[in-house]
Prior knowledge:
single chain, six-stranded antiparallel sheet, 2 helices, globular
Amino acid sequence: KVEVEINEQQEKDEESEQTDQEETSEEEQEVIETPGPPGSNIETEIVNPAWQPIGTTQSEPHVTQFKKDSVDWKEMLDAVSYATGLSQSDMIVWFIGNNGPNKAVATISTRDKAQYYKVYIEWVENQGWKPTKVQKLRK
């Protein structure tokens, strides 16, 4: 009996250690905000390690499509919306373009043009577009 009680206590200790480790990794995933370079159009640069791919209905191999009526365009907008917290009905898309293999960059603003953003996204195989960086622009 004593041996069983010790094992149970060890298991509880191990479980609490795992919980501590999980909490630590969540704390490490804080949003990183850095001011833009002096004299630049970038007010703040935001990186959130917790951002995940948004999911996709597309199959591999993925081919990036910059056509407004494509599924890829819609999914890119979903990723931009997710990164900025703006619904698509609350934003104006000024530009979405190529930013390298399986990468894109979008310039958007709020509908009232009070705030502008540049959003960087990348394609994650079988998982869809994932935001990597948001730049809050001065204009």
